[in-house]
Amino acid sequence: MRYRLSSDGSLNKHLCKLLQSINDDIALALLRAVRDPETGIHEARKGCKEIRGILRLLRPQLGEREFSYWQDFYRSLSGKLSGHRDHLVREQTWQNLVSETPRLQRKAFVSLARFLSLSPEPAIPDNKSRDTFLELALDVVEKSDMFGGRDLAKSLAELLPNLKTIYQKTRDAEQIANGSDDIESFHRFRKRSKDLFYCLRVLKPVFGKSIKPIVANLQKLTEVQGLANDQAVLLEFLTEHRDALDIDDSHWELVESLITKRLLGFQKQSHKMAKKLLSESPGAFIKFL
Length: 289
Fold this sequence. Notes:
This protein has helices at 11-33, 37-57, 59-62, 64-100, 110-117, 127-143, 160-178, 183-207, 212-240, 249-277, 282-288. The chain is an all-alpha fold and 289 residues long. The chain has two domains: 7-82 and 123-154, Four Helix Bundle (Hemerythrin (Met), subunit A) (Up-down Bundle), CATH 1.20.120; 159-289, Four Helix Bundle (Hemerythrin (Met), subunit A) (Up-down Bundle). α1 (11-33) packs antiparallel against α2, α2 (37-57) packs across α4 (64-100) and α8 (183-207) packs antiparallel against α9 (212-240). It is globular.
């Protein structure tokens, strides 16, 4: 069962157990990926993002060298799983678009669906992939003890300055993304939003019920950002393989315009949600908490 922080006892001890718990959950997700790749890979990647967000909160306590080591470890681990995950996302995103768009349900687009299902990364891992999941799980398990008995933070007050920085970075990333058509700017906004969400979610038992609505709304924001990212992943892949798609130019223009419309719609919705969530100055935000 997932470990949660507590307002009672040693905060430092709770933080160490929390990191160990998330690390162990990642290992279990990798083991699950052997039989259920879709769920296992998704949960493992979520765990990597969460622990990286929390490590950002503990960056001053860890020091730059150790912080960089752990960031690189979990980033690399997540990257090794991205191929299978992107394949599943592309297929599901296309299926959702087709189910909601009668014009795409015509015979002319069947070949596109077939191309997505047969694209390089298989939806079901082969035996070599399953062995890789097992190897990755063992590697993660070996790291679990590294979080035990650490001197991370004795009080919430020690974490507030960096939480303020994380909020500021999220706010800055949103402003840059809102004034840019660059998909990478929106991707950075999404990553910083996840950092803020994960940090506040784990700190919720310490702060109390007052931040519960903020955490819930941040979760909704990251879910909408995720939908936008799914559209971007699908569009990038189809654009890259345009020459291999067995559809004419008029059909391609329809596909491109529909995906782009959904992408921009989810982005617009994200900025609208963020406008309210990130309206306070960093200082006022921390004071409210």
